Records
---
Amino acid sequence: MSTGVKGGTGRDPNGGVGPDLNGGDAPLLRVRGLGVRLGSPAVPVLEEVDLTVRAGEIVGIVGETGSGKTTLARTVMGLLTPAAGSVEVDGVAVSGLRGAALRAHRRTGKVRFVFQDPLRSLDPDHTVGAIVGEGLAIAGVPAAERARRVRHALELVGLDPALAARRPAQLSGGQRQRVSIARAIVSEPALLICDEPVSALDASNRNHILRLLDELRERLGTGVVVISHDLGSLAGIADRVAVLYRGRIVEEGPISEVFDDPRHPYTALLVASAPRVRGTPRHDLARLRAPSTGGTGGCVFAHRCPFATGACAAVPPPVTRGERTVACHHTGTWSEAARVPVPAE
Ligand SMILES: Nc1ncnc2c1ncn2[C@@H]1O[C@H](COP(=O)(O)OP(=O)(O)OP(=O)(O)O)[C@@H](O)[C@H]1O
């Protein structure tokens, strides 16, 4: 995992106008060696996950269903207790907090979550104003100040403050998603975690919401984690991307570099399967989808990897760290074998 500043956009990590929320170059979110076990009997769902997010940075998390994306988000929120490793938000070790200390940390509103399904996550009996202001009410913010901040949050997400009097059922899908973002940003969180924030929306609303997240990090210096199946959406806004497979980060780095030149066969498979991400894919989809001779026990991807060798099935891969992180036995060699053939002149 890189410790460098975000790649790609060259923006001021504090968003130019926003406050320096973490007092310098320390990351807003630092996840180290995270392991989470769930179920009974407990099975590993996340293993040795490292992730860093800085102020004003957007980090995408991709991976197929069941890879552990939501579990990672819930653990960062302090909703799940790790079996190993640590989660630090703005210098506070969230993974070590319990009971009253954890509740107090949540009340600070430093980390806020935007849910996947705004209709289900917004209380139908409450007005938009009450929903957006709920966190402030719990924190004891007086009514007049609360109303002012709710209005401001609605304006920031591009909604008419008059909508504060309506209920969720009286809004469109795009408006509801904006309300859920307004509810999250009203406490001016240092870190915003969005679980599939645009998957339920049509293309035009999707673009609006993505632009909005981009604006928020610029204006408020918010660090944003975006979980998404949609590589194309992420490619438009994220600075970095982490690729999860079966609970492990197999690749991480600046999103343009990772999508242009994937160094893990699973990343290459995702990119080659999503034609909107890059005009000319570097790798041949059929080659990436070829059967594997690898087994299980070493690399988590060995059983699906057409380039797997005996070592992949037997031994966990070495992790190359730096601006790009890759966990693969054959980082330097598989890519050539999978390259799209160049047509003869
Ligand atoms: N409470 C639980 N008990 C046991 N296993 C669980 C529990 N919650 C999640 N899992 C398992 O953990 C794995 C990761 O689940 P998670 O919801 O984090 O995946 P995800 O990447 O967010 O998937 P999706 O894209 O479908 O939302 C899955 O295999 C899931 O079945």
---
Amino acid sequence: MSLIQTKDLTLAYGGNTVLRDVNIEINRGEIVTIVGPNGSGKSSLLRALIGAAKPAKGIVTRAEGLKIGYVPQSLSIDATLPLSVKRFLNLPSRVSKEAARVALEDAGVPELASRQLGALSGGQFQRVLLARALLQSPDILILDEATQGLDQPGAAQFYRQIESVRQTRGCAVLMVSHDLHVVMAASDRVLCFNGHVCCQGTPQVVADAPEYRALFGTGTQGALALYRHEHDHNHDHDHPDHDHAHKEAS
Ligand SMILES: Nc1ncnc2c1ncn2[C@@H]1O[C@H](COP(=O)(O)OP(=O)(O)OP(=O)(O)O)[C@@H](O)[C@H]1O
């Protein structure tokens, strides 16, 4: 059975329908990315999936006892607030030292525990948010524009970390992103979205689909090339058990 499934999900704000008859499912262990233009309802879909928005029609089914780890776009934290990463991970509820250590390690930033939150770079901060989501031992990680503000290499590194998390934890990952080809290359399945699912499939299938090209054109190939180039030779030593061949094969 899938982790989350929607059946004819329709969502409206006042009289404005933003999702219409959406049927999707996310299965255990897969990395799924939603791409779509601004205002196409991606965040609204995530809100409906986590139960924060009520459908006008249709249903959202979550597996019993499903644990969701949510990574927001960003959190606004006063840079002058004296708050260490360690303390931040203990909000709102205390976690064991070991749980915090493992979460930071899986997020790729084991060295940040004692650092001040306000002194972190954008990329480091996003990884701390990822670590915080991992504290839930989620069955599924949901990321809404988690790389906003990062440059392309930074975003590509973040997505590689996500792949590594999936590898070590076996959780499913659902992401919304504007990074198009960068994030698509890191996905098993891509949903191209514009109020409804326009097309879906492997990253290559979606990148070649007329529906996708009608929305985005073909101007983002450079990002894909960048991802592939770096992915080629960057980190086998970090994840010796992770076979990357599938990313270069398409
Ligand atoms: N709380 C709200 N009340 C009224 N309208 C809303 C609300 N949230 C979103 N909308 C509208 O719903 C539509 C879809 O918004 P949503 O944020 O889901 O799109 P998105 O694809 O995530 O956009 P972006 O890529 O710009 O983040 C937009 O027209 C937006 O103005």
